[in-house]
Structure formats: structure tokens, C-alpha cells
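We treat protein structure as text, and this decision shapes the records that our systems exchange. Below, we set out a record of this kind in full and without editing:

***
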Amino acid sequence: MTDPDTAHGIRRLARQARQELPPGHIAGEHFDDAARVLDLGLHDGAVRHLRAAAGSLQPRQLQRAGITDDETHAKAARLASEAIRHAMRVREENPAQEPAVWQYAATGTRRTVELARTAMGL
């Protein structure tokens, strides 16, 4: 069961993203989507949206969007850190829903394939 404060905190991040980032930046929408799917009990989906939000806040993505000022980059870095923190919180609250695919980032493709095969009994 997910703590209701988690979804509330994600919605707070969505409001902050809309206030602190230029109009039209996608991070606020990813935060809203994460909170919405978390309310539906789709924890993996919430983590994916939070990771997408964090990815859209990386310096290279900001530069591609024409955002070059240091102040906005600093705000985006803080929001990205909060997105990852919330993603970890969602995963910690629901450890049974952590599929082998999440091991991808830490172990690489070969290990992920091995984990998936083991999980499927191949």
C-alpha cells in the first residue's frame, strides 16, 4: 500500500515544475501522470513517469530545449533529485512489484536477460 503523502508530494513537484521551469516543459506533466497512476495502484508506471521527469530535467535535455541559464538548471537539478527520491520511495513501499527489468540500470543488458530468463523458468 502506498503512502498517500507520496502522491501528494509528487503533485507538489508538478506545481513546482510549472512555476520554476519555462512554459511548455514536460516535467510537470510527467509528475502529474506519476501521481495519477500511483493513485490507481500502478506503482511501476509511477516510477517510469518519475524517471522520465528526471530525464527531462537533465542538463543536455534542458539545453536542447533552449534553457541555458544557471538558475533554471539549478532548479531543474533539484527537481530531478526529488523525482528520483520519490521513485525510490514508491519502489520501497512496494517491494513485491519490483520486476527483474529494474536491474537493467545497475547490471547491464546481459545480466538483465539472465534475470528475466531465470524469472520465467527458461
